[in-house]
Amino acid sequence: MRAMVSQAAATDNGRTVASRIQASLPVMPTAMSKIADVLLENPAAPINLSITELAEEAGTSAATVTRFCKLIGYSGYTQFRVGVASDIGRGDAHESWRADIGREFHPEDKPREVLRTLLNEHVRGIEATAGMLDLDELESVARAIATCRHLDIYGIGGSAVMAGELQARLYRIGVNAHCWGEVHGGLTSAALQSKNSVAIGISNTGRTDETIQMLSQAASSGAFTVAVTHAPESPLAALADVTIITAAPDLYLQPDDLSAKHSQLFVLDMLYLLVAQQNFAETATKLAASAMAVSGHRRPQRPARQGRRPSLRIEEPAP
Question: Which residue numbers delimit the HTH rpiR-type domain (predicted)?
């Protein structure tokens, strides 16, 4: 192991793996540039991924990963991983910041600069998502949900929050919806699906194993399946009857950044509204009934104040 570290250090000449990738990008074939995209987005990925897993993540082959390593100056994947580990180990706080938070945000940025950059990214994500939506396809999904016997919504981690949000909204208007963020319960429910059921899998990357397993089981049971992801070529999208694409965050933000969640929530909110439109009168009745059911748990609204309350002012004694 020491020999490998010494070899990586000798080959590196002070250059980081990221700088090597950036320098080689102009001459990379398309397949290798996909690997570069994955590594620039997640520099620590090789620490946790085998060569086969990294190839799958990038949508290429293990042989291409080996050629990629040689192109940027490493004799193979093992030496490349040592170089990545070396970068992480010797990196200072600024290196860690750039790897984990991004190249567009800096520790010394003023709050207004952070706000402007973040707002632009979130707005662009929602606008890009809106531009990619197939409204006819989205409406067909809404009709299927409105008439289904049972709806399952699957999501792990942050996507489970999105699944729960959609479930709560649809359940309130009479859809027999259930969300599953735990694979055992989700697989059990998926096995009980039928051709009169709908199943939705939510995964930003489309590569979350548990979500793929649950949606796959639902498909095997005959359910109409829907994937919500930013990756149209992902395993989750490949097994779904319909794929709804959401915009991915730029490379300088983490894949699980809230901008991705806002794009997902935008799509799910659109889907909820289209389902609600399918039977407007029944939807309105159920919304009124559910609002009345919880009304006793809401404090009454105070009447609006007329004018501002006069401030208490203490007069100084006259000299």
Answer: 15-91
pLDDT confidence of 299, banded at 50, 70, 90? confident
How do residues 45-84 score in pLDDT, each as one tens digit?
888 888 999 999 999 999 999 999 999 999 999 899 888 8
94 pLDDT band (50/70/90 cuts)? low
Which residue shows structure tokens 């200072």? 92
Q: How far apart are CA 319 and CA 317, in angstroms?
A: 6
Task: State the alpha helices, DSSP H only, in the chain.
Answer: 2-12, 17-24, 30-41, 45-48, 51-58, 62-71, 77-90, 93-100, 111-132, 135-147, 158-172, 183-191, 209-220, 235-239, 258-278, 280-294
State in Å, rounded, how far the first CA of the chain is from the last one.
85
69-80: b or e for each residue (b if 16 or more CB lie within 10 Å)?
A: bebbbbeebebb
From the list 165, 248, 238, 240, the residue with the least C-alpha distance to 205 is 248
User: Tokens for 155?
Assistant: 């999501």
- CA 53 distance to own-chain centroid: 20
SS3 state of residue 224: strand
Query: Between vectors from CA 48 to CA 42 and to CA 54, what angle results, nearest 5°?
Result: 65
What the chain holds in terms of domains, given with CATH numbers, is 2-100 (1.10.10.10), 122-289 (3.40.50.10490)
